[in-house]
Design goal:
The protein is mostly helical and about 70 residues long. It is built from four helices and no strands. The protein is globular. The relative contact order is 0.19.
Length: about 70
């Protein structure tokens, strides 16, 4: 995957979702993602945090890339 996969600024993310990227990318830690698939993590973000699918997928991918 390209390093610039999610090339958005914190200002863009805050404007759409109210938190900076680093805050969103840390949220899956509270969801016990070790036994979840990426689509389950994205669905959790959508259901529990009202994140649009357009934003939930990149958050999940960035989270997983950090944990590799």
């Amino acid at each position: 995957m390209k390093a610039v996969y999610w090339k958005v600024t914190d200002e863009q993310v805050v404007g759409k979702m109210g938190k900076v990227k680093s805050e969103w990318v840390s949220i899956p830690d509270d969801f016990n993602v070790s036994d979840k698939k990426s689509n389950e993590v994205a669905a959790h973000l959508q259901q529990e945090y009202d994140v649009q699918k357009y934003w939930a997928q990149p958050i999940t991918i960035c989270y997983l890339k950090q944990k590799i």
